[in-house]
Request: fold
Amino acid sequence: MPQPQQLAKAEFVELIGGSNGQPASEGKTVPVQFNPQSLKLNFSNQWSGGDQPQGSSPQFVGTSTTKLSMELWFDVTLPIPDAMPDPGGDVRRMTQQVAYFMTVQNPNDPNQQARVPPKVRFRWGSFVFNGTMESMDETVELFSNDGVPLRASVSVNLSKHDLAFEFNQQQRGGSTPGIAGTTPLSLAKAGDSLQQMAARAGISNWQGVARANGITNPRQLQPGALINLSVSVSS
Reply:
């Protein structure tokens, strides 16, 4: 008799490091209690000019941000997944786990650039979004007779620079690979060269990236071109 298929659970994963073309490693993982009903993605571009009558056409400047928003529910009166810590009857102990990604984890680090909230990956099946948690709004919906919060809704907004689509490839049997299954595509801005884009991503082998993407003129990229910076072909 076939086994029932297990429901994929959404989760937030801390991203640690990742530079010089190397993928980030995964740290703290925070699963959700209930999967979101929907995910909202917002892509925005920057344009200049073109706002005057009979003026020049708008010029593409570059991307600003890609944003992901969702609403999550947490309720201690309902079954708690085994992967989640025991909230002890207070829903705030569950939402506090999500707030981890809003909190500076190294406030006393002498390096000012290290005193920032952690990068985060939202992963749900084949859907992957890597960025930072921009905002988190929590609304307590239900209290016990003693005034203990029991249920809360949490609105989360994640953002990242550049337009990038990432896919977590599902393997047979429902297992999910880690970072190696992620395919990021970066958007070329006006005036960008491939060498500049690779440098921003911490990649030195821009020639190999050009060969892998079939780019014949890496000095003059077409604005808006989607480029996979995670692949390269050696000479």
